């Protein structure tokens, strides 16, 4: 089966090269044939339009900057949808919007073809080295048909759920990473303005309890199991620490908006009488506001997930 790849930019180039290195017969397309020369020299074919590429391939990958670019390549003049045959698969590796991937999936279904939303996490270096996560949404059987190709590009491909599932997972990941980094920027600014050097401060906090963990591991033992009693560290104590940190910010004139919002949530939980519960118990307020039942993973399931990487 010929494999099509559209979008040979910073992310796409590494993934497409790994597909080609795995021995797949490649057809490529990009804004300029010059950007594909490395692939053509190694035996790939050039397609002048997405439609022409789709007509030659049973599976097509796209890696594009924006949802608008994905729609243009798929639905525009000489787009992929015009060339895809029944039972072929379009796997979109872009960070897309949920509405767009569901719309595109509907268009392909009318032709008897399949769409998999499969955004990636790992950056250009991960794309080049194959140290990459790919989170896939769509038909599960179709995902398993695609998995040998995904394995050529990533060490952590996985099926998340129905169409849009991969996109939702990617947006959760990126928003969480962004928020965590923003909080780190706040507290490091506070520490430096209070008199510390940034290098030693950052080095020090990386050796603390949270710094030694993978970024998302810490919520597994408490929040993901709705297990707040007995506390490993009491909520009243984390409120003391947060209040003291905010006081340093005030003393040195450092705005700490994000941390202030966190402290107000902790204070709300204290007002409910949760002071002796675990320090993560205030996170349950978010589930309550969202109308989501508490997560109740078993300890065994948490152990399995934490041991997976």
TrEMBL record:
Give the GO molecular function terms: 2-hydroxy-3-oxopropionate reductase activity; NAD binding; NADP binding
The entry's protein name is Tartronate semialdehyde reductase
Residue intervals of the 3-hydroxyisobutyrate dehydrogenase-like NAD-binding domain: 164-283
Any one of the GO BP annotations? organic acid catabolic process
Entry-linked Pfam families: NAD_binding_11, NAD_binding_2
Query: What is its EC class?
Result: oxidoreductase
Q: Where is the 6-phosphogluconate dehydrogenase NADP-binding domain?
A: 2-161
Which InterPro entries does the protein's record reference? 3-OH-isobutyrate_DH-rel_CS, 6-PGluconate_DH-like_C_sf, 6PGD_dom2, 6PGDH_NADP-bd, HIBADH-like_NADP-bd, HIBADH-related, NAD(P)-bd_dom_sf
Q: Which Enzyme Commission number(s) are listed? A: 1.1.1.60
Per the Swiss-Prot or TrEMBL record, the active site comprises: 170
């Amino acid at each position: 089966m010929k494999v099509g790849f559209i979008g040979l930019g910073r992310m796409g180039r590494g993934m497409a090269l790994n597909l080609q290195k795995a021995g797949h017969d490649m057809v490529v397309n990009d804004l300029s044939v010059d950007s594909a020369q490395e692939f053509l020299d190694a035996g790939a074919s050039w397609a002048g339009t997405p439609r022409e590429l789709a007509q030659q391939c049973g599976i097509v990958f796209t890696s594009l900057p924006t949802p608008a670019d994905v729609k243009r390549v798929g639905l525009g003049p000489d787009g992929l949808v015009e060339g895809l045959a029944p039972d072929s698969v379009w796997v979109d590796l872009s960070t897309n919007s949920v509405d767009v991937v569901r719309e595109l999936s509907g268009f392909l279904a009318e032709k008897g073809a399949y769409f998999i939303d499969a955004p990636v996490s790992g950056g250009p270096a991960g794309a080049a080295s194959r140290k990459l996560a790919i989170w896939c949404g769509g038909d599960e059987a179709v995902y398993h048909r695609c998995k040998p190709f995904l394995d050529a590009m990533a060490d952590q491909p996985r099926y998340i759920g129905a169409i849009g599932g991969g996109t939702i997972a990617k947006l959760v990941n990126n928003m969480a990473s962004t928020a965590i980094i923003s909080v780190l920027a706040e507290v490091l600014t506070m520490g430096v303005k209070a008199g510390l050097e940034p290098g030693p401060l950052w080095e020090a906090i990386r050796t603390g309890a949270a710094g030694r963990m993978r970024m998302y591991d810490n919520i597994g033992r408490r929040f993901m199991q709705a297990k707040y009693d007995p506390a490993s560290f009491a909520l009243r104590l984390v409120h003391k620490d947060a209040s003291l940190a905010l006081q340093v910010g005030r003393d040195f004139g450092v705005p700490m908006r994000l941390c202030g919002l966190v402290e107000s949530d902790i204070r709300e939980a204290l007002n409910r009488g949760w002071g002796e519960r675990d320090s993560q118990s205030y996170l349950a307020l978010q589930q309550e506001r969202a109308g989501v039942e508490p997560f109740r993973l078993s300890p065994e399931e948490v152990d399995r997930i934490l041991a997976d990487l």
